[in-house]
Amino acid sequence: MKYPDLYALLADAPEAKQYFEKLPDYVREQIGTRAEGVNSFESLRDYADNLLRGDD
Predict the structure, then answer these.
(1) Are 10 and 42 in contact (CB under 8 A)?
(2) How many whole angstroms separate alpha carbon 56 and alpha carbon 52?
(3) 33, pLDDT greater than 80
(4) Are 4 and 43 in contact (CB under 8 A)?
(5) What pLDDT, on the 0 to 100 scale, is given for residue 48?
(6) Phi and psi (nearest 5°) for 22?
(7) Which helix H or strand E contains 49, and what residues bound it?
(8) Which residues, other chains included, contact 31 with Cβ-Cβ below 8 Å and sequence gap of 6+?
(9) What is the DSSP code (8-state) at residue 25?
(10) With contact defined as beta carbons under 8 Å apart, do 40 and 48 qualify?
């Protein structure tokens, strides 16, 4: 399912919210700066994986 942005995703998808809350602070901050680009749990995981690998 697609959402308008990260905040809508987190509000409506408990599994995405739980995943997001377990991420390191720096990863959450980076994702938050591009919240409009995160519109599904899959895109959230992909972006977090990239940041955790050091890619951006």
Answers:
(1) no
(2) 9
(3) yes
(4) no
(5) 97
(6) -90, -10
(7) helix 41-53
(8) 6, 20, 23, 38, 44, 47, 48, 51
(9) H
(10) no
Q: What pTM was computed for the model? A: 0.89
CA distance 29 to 3: 19
Is 9 in contact with 36 (CB distance < 8 Å)?
no
DSSP-assigned states of every residue in 8-52: HHHHH-HHHHHHHHHS-HHHHHHHHHTGGG--SHHHHHHHHHHHH
Q: Give the number of residues written for the chain.
A: 56
- Beta carbons within 8 Å of 2's beta carbon, 6+ residues apart: 39, 40
How many Å apart are CA 43 and CA 16, to the nearest integer?
A: 10
Whether residue 4 contacts residue 17, with contact meaning beta carbons closer than 8 Å, is answered with no
